[in-house]
Amino acid sequence: MSDNIEYRRFNAADIEAAHELTVELKWPHRAEDWQFVAELGMGFAAVRGGQLAGTALCWQHDERTASIGMVIVSPAMQGLGIGRRLTELALAQVENSATVLHATPAGRPLYEKLGFVPIGMLDQHQGQALQPPLAQLPARERLRPLGVNDLPRLIELATRASGLGRANVIAKLFECADGIGLDRDGELIGFALLRRFGRGRAIGPVVAPPDVEQVRAKALIGHWLALNPGTFIRIDVPSASGLTGWLESQGLQRVDTVVRMARHAERLPPQDGGFAQYGIVNQAIG
Hints:
alpha+beta
């Protein structure tokens, strides 16, 4: 059976069938969510008998960093090495880059064999948003709407906080997301974006200077929760962020935890300690 599988480049015509795969696996992605990630990167498809059997996408963020995601194999086609072959094809496109991904327990053994090592954990929170209490920001800091002139600073902050090149993804998000910024004496020092995703809305990325009680991150996230009471919201946060208890008190339960892994981890640029990433773009892009 495996001899009848064709591997080729993923293209826009595959999005409908790829969406059907995620529906089959009970992933939340809409066809529009697939289009968003596909337009930012490239990938490969496994096809058997004219039917899409699996996918793997990759994103080259800059000359040093990349990520891999949307590694999916149809339940009826699992056990044939399709996931491994698709991942190898994607890795070949970003071979010399520090490459990150988020692994489920089932996928982790494969990624370890391909040279990935754990570098952290990520918690997925989701649920019906509650109305949070107003956060008290430090003196001279306030929330303000974002404008087009803020885009270069958003890219800079997101890159410094994540260690990954964020120019392409932030520019793309800015076309479809709403944004709120954290301002200190006229300087933008943090932000949070909100966009359509899956069953409702997704918050991310979220970037802010760290503080003991995560007041700034709570203010940025709480802004969107307050504007969307009762809306289904998802946010993926580093497990070490300290936000889990607060998010659950706001109606966003932790429903899953995955391992953040890296290949060529020693090549990852250091994250800027002056800024922390309290929410990622998504588990595919990082």
